[in-house]
Amino acid sequence: MSSTSRAPSVRFEHLTKIYSGRSDHPTVAVQDVTLSITAGSLTVLVGSSGSGKTTLLRSVNRMVTPTSGRVLIDDHDVSELDAVKLRRTIGYVMQESGLLPHKRVIDNIAIVPRLNGATKASARERALELMTVVGLDQRLATRFPAELSGGQQQRVGVARALAANPRLMLMDEPFGAVDPIVRSDLQRELRQLQDQLGITILFVTHDIAEALALGDQIVVLAERGRIAQQGTGAELIAQPADEFVADFLGLGAGRDLHLQDSDGTQLVMDADGRPIGRLSGHRR
Ligand SMILES: Nc1ncnc2c1ncn2[C@@H]1O[C@H](COP(=O)(O)OP(=O)(O)OP(=O)(O)O)[C@@H](O)[C@H]1O
After folding, report:
1. What ipTM was reported for this prediction?
2. At the top level of its lineage, which domain of life is listed (predicted)?
């Protein structure tokens, strides 16, 4: 998964994860999930709290070890790959940016290239380039994370994840903690970035509007990772598989959603003609 290789596909095969925890009652987080993620797509896993989204995501980079089943990146079973190397080749962005508080922005971004053997100078040069890629003013390079806004911290998180030139990126509610306007900017920029980079992105959210705005493919998860529906945003809206999906999309109770073209952007409109979101312009 170097910068020169193509974006990989990801496949979950009969994945089950049971957390034994400290209580008497083990939790079945996901049960027998089989799911294919197309190479080079931005696929969104969306579902309510506790549906197993994070568990699925973290099983890709081996932060979670499945109880049974397996995850394949292209044709490689991740359990047979070196966990440390695997994590260094996969970008990972989470809700709390996970930045190191005592390191300056530039050095936070440079961490993985440094671990991979880049010199300090070349890692920093790359970090500065990436700041521009994610829309950060390079003058922020010498600040500490606490001296940035939430949105800026998330951009640093994205830049850091991109620093190793990953062909696969995992994003766990990365924009959950920022205000709606910044969030919408970040979504638009991520879409553009993915169009340029052509990498495979697996993105977790519980927000259906975010899923519609971002996803080439959307996977709606019900309890224990049950796949209620997988398809493009347009397919989900046109033909929700069942009542669960319809409710999740807000299609129940007279909120008939439909799509309307506005200067090439597909807006999601409710029954009263109010735009409630926009659809990712990219459907493969
Ligand atoms: N380390 C753990 N130990 C015990 N139970 C866990 C652990 N991690 C997750 N779970 C349980 O597994 C289930 C799925 O959790 P997971 O975090 O994968 O869901 P999620 O869809 O990402 O939820 P959220 O949107 O709230 O983050 C939940 O019932 C959760 O309580």
Report:
1. 0.96
2. Bacteria
